[in-house]
Hints:
The chain is of the alpha/beta class. The chain is built from 30 helices and 36 strands. The protein folds into five domains: about 20-95, Roll (Ubiquitin-like (UB roll)); about 155-290, Alpha-Beta Plaits, CATH 3.30.70; about 315-375 and about 580-750, Rossmann fold, CATH 3.40.50; about 390-570, Dimethylsulfoxide Reductase, domain 2; about 810-935, Barwin-like endoglucanases (Beta Barrel), CATH 2.40.40.20. Strand 12 and strand 13 form a beta hairpin. It is globular. The protein starts with 18 loop residues before the first strand and ends with a helix.
Amino acid sequence: MGYERQPDFGTPASSSEEQVTLTIDGRPVTVPAGTTVMRAAAEIGTAIPKLCATDSLKQFGSCRLCLVEIDGARGTPASCTTPVAPGMTVHTQTPRLQKLRKGVMELYISDHPLDCLTCAANGDCELQDQAGAVGLRDVRYGYQGANHLGQAKDRSNPYFDFESSKCIVCSRCVRACEEVQGTFALTIQGRGFGSKVSAGTADDDFLSSECVSCGACVQACPTATLSEKSLIEIGTPERSVVTTCAYCGVGCTFRAEMRGEQLVRMVPWKDGKANRGHSCVKGRFAWGYAQHEERITRPMIRASIDQPWQEVSWEQAFAHAASELKRIQAKYGQRSIGGITSSRCTNEETFLVQKLIRAGFGNNNVDTCARVCHSPTGYGLKTTFGTSAGTQDFDSVEHTDVMLVIGANPTDAHPVFGSRMKKRLREGAKLIVIDPRRTDLVRSPHIEAAHHLPLRPGTNVAVLTAMAHVVVTEGLADEAFIRERCDWDEYRDWAEFVSHERNSPETLAPVTLVDPAELRAAARLYATGGNGAIYYGLGVTEHSQGSSTVMAIANLAMATGNIGRPGVGVNPLRGQNNVQGACDMGSFPHELSGYRHISDGATRALFEQDWGVDLDPEPGLRIPNMLDAAVDGSFKAIYIQGEDILQSDPDTRHVSAGLAAMECVIVQDLFLNETANYAHIFLPGSTFLEKDGTFTNAERRIQPVRKVMTPLNGYADWEVTQELARAMGLDWNYAHPGEIMDEIARLTPSFAGVNFRRLDEAGSLQWPVNEAAPQGTPTMHIDGFVRGKGKFVVTDYVPTDEKTGPRFPLLLTTGRILSHYNVGAQTRRTANTAWHPEDRLEIHPVDAEDRGLKDGEWVRLASRSGETTLRALITDRVAPGVVYTTFHHPATQANVVTTDFSDWATNCPEYKVTAVQVTPSNGPTDWQEDYEALSERSRRIAPLEAAE
């Protein structure tokens, strides 16, 4: 599509089902009751002039430009604040209105510098457009904005500038920060011509303020007051392509605005059903990694990891990779090789990798990063409900009365959805947070949790069982729902179990460290407060009892009847952009696409007939098992697409030992990541901007990813996998990812109705999409559970084997921060490092004082597995006895201290509970220094002449 602004209807749409008919400029129009006159006019293509109004914000009525005349009404009311009425007759253009609007616009222009020719917004400025719309050709007043001229631009933010001299004080930026983002970082200071937008700090700059750089203010600004630096440097876009963000599992839709093949800016798409026109700092601004100088664009090989890389042609790389894989299988056996699919790549690319391993390698040694994040979600929800995914769409939160957030930090890890949660909380919904840290959701401007249960890490199951104890023993269970929708006998067994005194909040308090009275109040609120929705993240799954916790969550939702309608449900907040899709596509060693077990003969036959091969009926190795087998000498080669297991997987020493023991490690990625330190073949990857395909977000929403520029490496990732498959002897001839999706739909019941044409028409579809649900399924389990009857599972609390003691008295838990994503490979190569240049260790003031630690000083973090150093951040956000860090920077190597304990059902690692000691330090450990030396040595690339 060519470049043009999305239509702006001025005010938000009304959700009323009642219809009202009126006449505007002699034309009849019918709209929902509650619609404003401005929006009704826009619906029939009549653009009433406006400056303070935009359809992403509530009507405000300050600019006085949108005046209209209404028969029988006095004066000239503002169309943005006047609701329609039956039989109303509106005039949007009369001599009187023309005169009034010109006068208003003259006042705005008199306070605005007229440097339009050199202004960054020239050609894309609403003030400019509206001056033309009202017919202003002459300004009688001298420039009143001279008092602004001495003010410097605020260039503190890495991504946008603020130039107050161009501000018309429409308040759109302030309102966007409040209504859309919910940060309340901006305000209006002063009065009259002296009023201005302020960031509210002593320095009054954006970087030092509470601003989270979501871009809502920039998008709302009708002038060049707030302008992206990229727009200033490159110029106005000439075309745009709608695509899907490649960061977290929210799956925001963006409009990539281009000049030629140069990306100018990413603008959130108002029709995006996951983000509804909002964005975060990562999706909006942190796309510069795609053009970063460290990006590898030519294939490379080397005989051993102590040698420098040699650049080769794609043909040489594919031939060498295929030769090595075949050699190793001939020597060590068919199951001696395997691969890992990427949760950052598209569904189509992930599907091809698992197909290559099953049909080309002849085994099921395939796994994905969901193993180390949300595999317990798949196991737990499939066991209890019958499907391995969340139950609701994101819009469901608008109908929620009580949110229970456990083990998740949405404002940092899923910020756009976090903003939607905060908006609903400001409207009156109640919040329960179960988390060892005081996250921003617990308390921030205009919201506060009704209950915060700061549990001891590792006791999720005990807390949820205690809540269930309250629900059952106080008669708060929804017996009618349970009898109709669930297995009654299993419920009675479960109810008897949770009712035992040993599961009461009081008995479990010494274990959980949660106040029993607070826990009881939280349980009552969830059970009786109306629509209750549970949202959870890696703080639930990354435990030795991760699967048990997911089932305990499902038990609680079923017991209270909070399943099967808008506003309720069990909602896993997925970490990576396509981790849901990677699971859907059959990336686990025991499952084909659609979560069907490899041992099922009928399912296997379907794939064998389509692919023309025999499939191994035995499940393959999981990631930890591959590494174990490598150390043991039976697993010798691995193909890793778009994952950095050395930085992201637990017990770094074990991962490095496994990789070092292999004879052929193939890494396909954008950069020489940490895993590539041990690689023998490097295949350059492509970014989401360079390919077509689909991502599936946390709400099961399948969304188009559209190519906006030519891949710098020459190939999209799916083409790289196809060429490798051809080199292995497979006759693959896909011409476009749409053909791969057709194959997915042919073989996967939940995707049966999905194709690229339908996605283009609908924008997105939520699986299952099939004959029973041709338009997709926003809410699951409406009339009954997918498995039939909901299954209650007894989840006894089993303490983790990881214990604190005199040597390691503290518990370490980990998480993410707003400005970075996962292992930081992308965001560390952008200006996001301005907010988070290093990982810090959060420690409570009492624990810091006991150890003689000061804020900002280096500390040694040691566990039974290993040790690292980083700088301390002393804060009461963590409870005494708990420390916390992020894992975005490889210099920290936080996972060198995590253990190899894992979930009993899925091998998901126990990242969130590690017994540690923290002591003063002088600097990096021997491990860190050795690792840095290895990385430097491993990333040498031989000069091209030498390679040739």
